[in-house]
Please model this.
Amino acid sequence: MNYLWAFVVGGGLCVIGQLLIDLTALTPARILVGYVVAGVVLSAAGVYQPLVEFAGAGASVPLLGFGHTLAQGAVRAVELHGLIGVLTGPLAAAAGGITASLLAGFLMALVAHSRDQN
Model:
């Protein structure tokens, strides 16, 4: 059942993003930023953590989950280190995911042998 809810919630978030692309003049970059900011706002409002507990990876993996991770990292770091935690906490909380994505991108660049599109 966990897999089903992760699929439904994650798929629903993707459908919303696709509808924003298809039905508005928003660029994908603006939608990306909007999703991350929405994750921070929903996390600050206390709404996103119950969704993560319910849907697991369906809510924690998409861009909203990245925003949630940044917000939670800031909150924890402020509790431990004071105001400087606002600057250090978000990146510390997301460091594993950022490192994994950079490493995967580097490995794909080695394998794919990209060419100039012109």
Q: What stands out?
A: The chain has a mean pLDDT of 91.
